[in-house]
Design a protein that fits this description.
The complex is a heterodimer of chains A (202) and B (238). Chain A is mainly beta. Chain A folds into 2 domains: 95 residues, Immunoglobulin-like (Sandwich); 84 residues, Cupredoxins -  blue copper proteins (Immunoglobulin-like, Sandwich), CATH 2.60.40. Chain A is built from 1 helix and 16 strands. In chain A, a hairpin with a 6-residue loop joins β9 and β10. Chain A is globular and about 55 Å long. With 238 residues, chain B is α+β, with helices and mostly antiparallel strands. Chain B has 2 domains: 117 residues, Immunoglobulin-like (Sandwich), CATH 2.60.40.10; 87 residues, Immunoglobulin-like (Sandwich), CATH 2.60.40.420. Chain B is built from 3 helices and 18 strands. Chain B has a 5-stranded mixed sheet with strand order 6-12-11-8-9, with no helix packed on it. In chain B, strands 1, 14, 17 and 18 form a 4-stranded mixed sheet that branches. The radius of gyration of chain B is 21 Å and the shape is globular. The termini of chain B are far apart. The chains are: A mainly beta (202), B alpha+beta (238).
Chain lengths: 202, 238
């Protein structure tokens, strides 16, 4: 038993070291002025050179069971698609739409079992709704990055697997009373820890 | 039989008269109805004698979880009048749970009072999408405070202390707004001849914007239905 564990660790530890040899992480803490308990703070990285932002498109999925969007906050990048799956267990129809500046769309009638899709082609944010059900409301945030983390509340964060280069750490704060300042970080041969991001009142 | 017919005719005539504004010499008016309704696909499905949740006898049946378009009370008809520079006063009332209105249409330059009927002091603010913000002085329970709105666009009136206190504001220069329930008649009278923009707005749907030409001594009738498909169609046309 002990020998097996020893062999396992002897394989895993070098693998872990190898995996982290090139990619680093950025970690730290988000502090909000007045210790306000803001929800859905998005910490993200954008390359300092904005021309280096081409990503393979990703398809994101949003479920609708129980007349709720799940998740109700989704972070995408330009070029991605968002699929709305009607996974209700009864014959409940939805009509998903957005009239935001990010993307105006009306997906028509979404019956039980249907999958409706919308593509996102630029940065920004906007709300989407179901025109049938009053509590169905969600937010789409399109960022020029794949490196992000959504915080349920202010506190510690970690952005793993960051390739070397110059990055700007930014935050998306949906509460209109608050804002945050971007922070320039250069990732070279080590990780950045104890990065402090401040969210202040406008 | 003849009596009933005559009575009906008189009633129709009276209703027609009451919806069209009186002609004021040298001025004009716009009038009509404002109605909100479900998406056309939902209406179509309900009309097919569908035995599901929405349709009974061809009409959409609204349950508690649904947006009841027939009973919406915060539909706004807004004329953008270049000669109006603001100054009208509005009042919102805050309780511990919510604001008295979910939405309000105002003009830049209007004064917005907030009455704090909650049990704690509230610091209200008005914020837009950019960094500019207007903050009310802290308002104690039972008191009210006011701010002259300086911003335009879709704004949020919120509270530092209580996130459930939130009203969406539509603010435009020269906006003269009226609040109506779905199916109401509206009329905007005493307008000088000229070109105006008119917005029909419901916060969850957005607005339809139309241009009207007011002539002296004439009325324009403009009936508007607000629905997702109609608003999106209008956006695509402009």
């Amino acid at each position: 038993m002990f020998l097996k564990r020893l062999i396992l660790f002897s394989v895993l530890i070098p693998l872990a070291l190898y995996a982290s040899a090139d990619a680093h992480h950025i970690s730290g803490e988000v502090k909000v002025e007045g210790d306000k308990n803001l929800k859905n703070l998005i910490v993200y990285l954008e390359p300092a050179d904005s021309s280096k932002t081409q990503y393979e498109p990703v398809v994101h999925k949003i479920m609708q069971k129980g007349r709720r969007f799940s998740p109700d906050l989704i972070v995408v990048s330009p070029g991605d698609k968002v699929q709305f799956l009607n996974d209700e267990d009864r014959e409940i129809d939805h009509n998903i739409y957005s009239l935001s500046k990010l993307k105006s769309f009306d997906l028509g009638l979404g019956e039980k079992g249907s999958v409706l899709e919308v593509s996102v082609d630029k940065n920004g944010s906007g709300n989407f709704y179901c025109s049938v059900h009053k509590l169905m409301e969600g937010r789409l945030v399109s960022l020029n990055t794949r490196h992000f983390v959504v915080l349920e509340k202010p506190g510690s964060f970690i952005l793993p697997n960051i390739p070397p280069g110059k990055w700007i750490v930014k935050m998306f704060v949906s509460h209109r009373r608050y804002k945050s300042a971007p922070l320039n970080i250069s990732v070279t041969d080590s990780s950045h820890e104890a990065v402090e991001l401040k969210v202040v009142k406008k | 039989m003849i009596k009933t017919f005559s009575f009906t005719l008189i009633l129709i005539a009276l209703i027609s008269c009451s919806s069209a504004p009186e002609i004021i010499p040298g001025k004009g008016a716009v009038y009509g109805s404002i109605t909100a309704e479900s998406h056309k696909d939902i209406i179509a499905k309900a009309s097919k004698d569908y035995d599901g949740f929405y349709g009974v006898n061809g009409k959409v049946v609204f349950t508690e979880q649904m947006v009841n378009y027939e009973k919406l009370k915060e539909l706004f008809v807004c004329v953008l009048d270049p000669s109006y520079s603001g100054g009208k006063e509005h009042l919102l009332i805050a309780s511990d749970e919510k604001m008295s209105q979910r939405s309000l249409a105002i003009a830049k330059g209007d004064k917005l009072w907030v009455q704090n009927n909650s049990t704690t002091t509230q610091t209200f603010f008005i914020a837009g999408a950019d960094d500019y913000i207007q903050v009310y002085s802290p308002t104690k329970p039972g008191e009210r405070s006011a701010i002259t709105v300086q911003q335009e666009g879709e704004l949020e009136l919120g509270s530092d202390e209580n996130e459930s206190l939130m009203t969406i504001l539509l603010s435009r220069k020269g906006l003269v707004g009226q609040q109506h329930s779905s199916g109401d008649k509206y009329k905007v009278e005493n307008l000088n001849p000229g070109q105006y923009k008119i917005l029909f707005w419901f916060w969850r749907l957005g607005f339809i914007e139309k241009t009207i030409f007011i002539e002296a001594g004439a009325n324009i009738e403009l009936n508007q239905i607000l629905s997702v498909d109609k608003i999106l169609q209008s956006k695509n046309e402009t």
